[in-house]
Amino acid sequence: MTDALRDAVPKGFKSRVEERLGRANRGPVALWFWEIDRVLLLLTFLLIAVGLIAVAAASPATARRYSEGAHQIAPMYYFWRQLMWVGVSVPVMLVVSMLPPNLARRFALGAAALFLLLLLTTPVIGVEVNGAKRWLGVGISQFQPSEFLKPVFIVAIAWLLSLRGRDPDLPMVPVTGVLTAIVGATLMLQPDFGQTIVFGSVWMILLMVSGIHTRVIGSLVGLGVGGVVAAYLFYDTARIRIDNFLFPDHGGAGSDHYQTDMAHATLTGGGLTGTGPGGGTAKFRLPEAHTDYIFSVVGEEFGLIACAIIAMLFLAIVARVFIKLLDEEDAFRLLAAAGLAAQFGVQATINMAVNTGLAPSKGMTLPFISYGGSSMIALSIGMGLLLAFTRRNPYLHRSPYIVR
């Protein structure tokens, strides 16, 4: 800081900041400030800010779509609702990120047991929306157990796999496989094929990070391919979506291919620089413009360059985590952080692939960009856990050659 800038800051404010966040201070907030990955936190805040702008752009289209007769929805209704969810979610993320790693692990394990139980009850007592039972009703609101289960389940799987470091004979690979299969089968009953892919993909990534033999990985990949084939043959939801994607002539205005076609047309409608905020027209014909297809709305109004910047933000977050884990010595923290970053990246990749027409529709939100209370709070919990597990003592020098 230059002398001019230093003099411009009020002395009272400077003294309070130095007192609360100075390196000599050993209070919990000061320790959190110096140990947290501030670059990762900044990237997350950038995504949240971009998400608010994107929801503001998509809100008028969604409000018009869901307005009926006397029930008229204000054009910016979904933006104000999202702003409220951000106001709830950001403090949650910061509080979770302040948890010591051991306490964060215990919190995740307890939450994983709770939300797994809730997920198992969802196909039976869940609220049906658009033909799917993915939500549980709580009073006048609803929430999606699978969204909250994702981050804490990943931490639980990471903890189980880390136990192999203490005793290689522990059957943690089949145990975690059975747990993941139970989650996947329950999700397919809802049905929610997209979330099943996320859980299965992250489990495979965690197995690879944990150092499992390549022959086992090859066998699991073969089983995965067989599972997709079996899903196509015996699971109507998967077959319909794959057929609509591969054979578009068979689909109508309500088909998945119609949605992906409209998403692609909206995405490319603004060219490189976009039509400008509020200038998009194709978004008014786009289903779920504020959730599944918000990436396309960004493309129309802000351009393909803005879409590329968003994709690079996601890549930067995942790369930042994996690079930081290169010298991590604790097996659990390595697996937990890698799994959380992988979940974040896989979900974003699936959503962007659907919007660009590279994958069939899966009902997958874009992390921190799409509208949604359950999604925003669950993602904030996941990012809070990721920040907690990547906290580092700035004075501790680690060797990349030491493996615990």
TrEMBL record:
Catalytic reaction annotation: [GlcNAc-(1->4)-Mur2Ac(oyl-L-Ala-gamma-D-Glu-L-Lys-D-Ala-D-Ala)](n)-di-trans,octa-cis-undecaprenyl diphosphate + beta-D-GlcNAc-(1->4)-Mur2Ac(oyl-L-Ala-gamma-D-Glu-L-Lys-D-Ala-D-Ala)-di-trans,octa-cis-undecaprenyl diphosphate = [GlcNAc-(1->4)-Mur2Ac(oyl-L-Ala-gamma-D-Glu-L-Lys-D-Ala-D-Ala)](n+1)-di-trans,octa-cis-undecaprenyl diphosphate + di-trans,octa-cis-undecaprenyl diphosphate + H(+)
Return the GO cellular component terms, semicolon-separated. cell division site; plasma membrane
Q: Which InterPro entries match?
A: FtsW/RodA
Transmembrane residues, as ranges? 39-58, 78-100, 107-127, 147-163, 170-187, 193-209, 216-235, 302-322, 334-354, 366-389
Q: How does it sit in the membrane?
A: Multi-pass membrane protein
Q: Which keywords does UniProt give here?
A: Cell cycle, Cell division, Cell shape, Glycosyltransferase, Membrane, Peptidoglycan synthesis, Transferase, Transmembrane, Transmembrane helix
* Family the entry assigns: Belongs to the SEDS family. FtsW subfamily.
The name on file for this protein is Probable peptidoglycan glycosyltransferase FtsW
Q: Which organism is it from?
A: Sphingomonas guangdongensis
